[in-house]
Amino acid sequence: MLLAAPLLLPAGGAAHAADQKAVVVSAGSEQAVKLGKTVISRPFGAELVDHLAVVGSYTVQGAQLHLIRGKAGAECPARYAVIVTRAGQEPLVTEAFGTCSTAAKPQLRRGVFTVAMPATAAGGPLVQFRYANGRMHRPVAALTQGAGKIGPATPATTSACRSANSVNAADQAAALDAFERDWPKAYRRTGSLKKVTFGQGEMRRLTTDLACMASWPAGERRVPELATPLFRSRQHRAAAFAALESIQRDPNADANLKAVARSFSAEMRYRVALDPPLL
Question: Whole-model pTM?
Answer without folding.
Answer: 0.49
